[in-house]
Input
Amino acid sequence: MVIAIDGPAGSGKSTIAKLLAEKKGFLYINSGKLYRAITAGCLKAGISPADSEKVQEFAKNADIDYQIIGGKDTVFLNGEDITDQLHTDEIDKHSSPLSAIVPVRHIVNDIIRKLAQGRDIVVEGRDMTTVVFPDTPYRFYLDASAESRAKRRFDQGTSKMSLEEVKNAILARDDIDKNKAEGSLKIAQGVHFLDTSDLTIIQVYDKLIERID
Ligand code: DC
Output
């Protein structure tokens, strides 16, 4: 069984996907972390995330492994655990244009499909409900106002930016994520749409579980 959740940054999808996976005993897959891992690897290797050819070459040859270790979604890049390096302002900024490179999307989607094989999963991202798992009946799109999303990100404390700057950065990423040649963020026909702006985590969880069960 596949539960697929899409939505923009700060819509609450990671928190909800993780909670759902825990409660149901499913594997949790955060697809954004795979794009972030490739971005981190490119930056470390001195490759500009905008250099499509070099990024593709890097992604093709990279050994990317995703595991849940001690309840935490952990990403290994070429044998190194880089999980704690993935949520910086720099990676936030560069992962969005990097994820617009179509062959990179195919590499990431292959990794996700392999992880999912023969398993019950909760997977979240931007194109899980449209491209990767369009046939699962359990498809959700979470959204929230730009203000709520910025506040959530700001409160996570991982950014060095002001609240206003976080909001502008989120809007800039939205724009790129919604206008990709492939895998762009959109509300697919038939998905369950939920605005989480004024809902608590538990309220969102309850609404999703009601649909699923
Ligand atoms: O979900 P996130 O913010 O960690 O994702 C990081 C970037 O990766 C984001 O800007 C969009 C991109 N992404 C994507 O294009 N497709 C996905 N399925 C997941 C993330």
About this structure: The longest helix spans residues 102-116. Residues 3 and 122 are 5 Å apart (CA to CA). The chain has a mean pLDDT of 96. The chain has one domain: 2-212.
